[in-house]
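Appendix B, example 12.
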Amino acid sequence: MAGELDTRTRGRTARGRLRALDAYLCQSESALLTRREGAWARAVFVDVGFGEHPWTTLESATAFRALNPELSVVGVELEAERAHAAARAHSDARTHFREGGFVLPLAPEEPARLVRAMNLLRQGPLERIPEAHRAMSRHLLPGGLLVEGSSDTDGAVLVAHLLRRTPEAEAPAREGLLFHTDFSRGFAPLLLRDWLPRDLRRRVRPSEPLHAFFQAWESAWKAARAEGHTAPPEAFAESVLRLARMTPGVAPDAWLLTHGFLRWSPPGGIPP
């Protein structure tokens, strides 16, 4: 059911909008998706706010079950009719659709391994975002992951928080930020800045770590272009390699670079 944290959205999620994020999770979080010991055998993937049609939930289920065929998936949607229509059309023994919001409609015997909430926190009170993060991570097993952020309508540009549940804290650890572009809109670091999670958009200002990060990335990008790396994929990859040499926590991983991803996990995590 809807709670005071929840805000209604348009819910028009296009097919394929989050496929790049699915690919990243399969590549970088395969151990999380496949854990089977103890409570992990019952741990589910939760897609929060799947919208008018559950395309993102079903696409993720297909991607993740290539690694873990027994994975249970729960799609959650605030609008009751959308949730019920998805349940009627798409439910099976391992795929469930439920009405709910940031307080996840999971039973005590349904721990979560991964919770994804994309394009949901763009409205509503800014100061309530940490509370929403805590609510969505409450069912995660220690080591489980909450992914929360924003993308454009077809998923060409995406930025998301990577929030990890730890045994000793109520709030998830702000482990890192994930940036992605498919280069269909070209590439410049400022293109990604515009899609930061909502709680970070006002933090790109002088004296803030995010401001320094984007300044360093912009400088690295300009230097890459000056040396002839002008095609967007080449400029991106070269800029990230340069950025990694001067910015702690930037992962110069070959798979990430090839697929248009930058993961930034600074020491101490992303500042709140």
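The chain is about 35% helix and 20% strand. The mean pLDDT is 94.
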